[in-house]
Amino acid sequence: MNNTEKIITEIKEFHTNIEAWFRGKAENQDRLYEKLLSGFTEEFKMVTGNGDSLTLAAFSEWLPGTYGKFPDRIIVLENIEVYSTESHGMASYIEIQTTGDSITQRRSSAVFVIREDRALWLHLIEKWI
Q1: pTM for this model (two decimals)
Q2: Count: domains in the chain
Q3: Are 93 and 18 a contacting pair, CB within 8 Å?
Q4: How far apart (Å, rounded) are the C-alpha atoms in residues 92 and 106?
Q5: Which of 79, 96, 98, 122 is the most exposed place for a label (fewest CB within 10 A)?
Q6: 79: alpha, beta or left, given left = phi > 0 and alpha = psi -120 to 50?
Q7: Residues ≥6 apart with Cβ < 8 Å to 69
Q8: Are 120 and 39 in contact (CB under 8 A)?
Q9: pLDDT in tens, 59-110
């Protein structure tokens, strides 16, 4: 798998897993929690669509309170574009979350570090659209 494919795989798998988390659909909640967090570097930082900054520690603390909170949430990704080098990559994509009648959309840009056989999230910026 080349680095572009590693990044696309990480983006898709993370969103599949976070959707399962929000829906409360894990065979093993602890294992899914660890799987979600294992895709991030320790230096990970995020800027949310509201402009708030989160570290990996803050994201890790926020995540348990959202398990099963949105049992009908569906997450769809569109327009994934990736540029990668031998050790880093940048991706942009649109994420659409549907929860009941509520639909939110965000344009996301992410920087990844390539470590061995996978891409790890280093930085993520979301902007509401």
Answers
A1: 0.96
A2: 1
A3: no
A4: 11
A5: 79
A6: left
A7: 22, 24
A8: yes
A9: 999 999 999 999 999 999 999 999 999 999 999 999 999 999 999 999 999 9
- Residue 116's pLDDT is 86
Contacting residues for 116 by C-beta, under 8 A, at least 6 apart: none
| Structure-token pair, residue 124 | 């993520």
How high is the pLDDT of residue 87? 96
Domain of residue 11: give its range. Answer: 3-128
Contacts of 92 (CB under 8 A, 6+ apart): 79, 80, 81, 107, 108, 109, 110
Per the listing, tokens 């989160």 go with: 54
Using alpha carbons, select from 101, 111, 109 the residue that is nearest to residue 49.
109
Distance of CA 70 to the CA centre of its chain: 16
pLDDT in tens, 13-62: 999 999 999 999 999 999 999 999 999 999 999 999 999 999 999 999 99
Q: Which residues pair with 89 in a beta bridge?
A: 84, 112
| C-alpha 64: how far from chain center | 15
CB 37 within 8 A of CB 46: no
